[in-house]
Amino acid sequence: MLRGFYTAASGMMASQRMQEMLSNNISNVETPGYKQTQGSLRAFPELLLQQMGSKTLPGSTAPVVPDQSRVGSLHMGVYLQETTPDFSQGALKETGVSTDMALVSDELPDADGAVLFQVENGNGETRYTRNGSFTVDDEGFLTTNTGYRILDDTGNPINTDGQAFQVSRTGMLTTADAGSQLAVAYIPDANALVPQGSDLYVPGENAGPIENALENEGVDFSVHQHFIERSNVDLNRTMTDMMNTYRSFEMNQRVLKAYDQSMQQAVSEIGRIR
Question: Three-state SS for 264?
Answer without folding.
Answer: helix
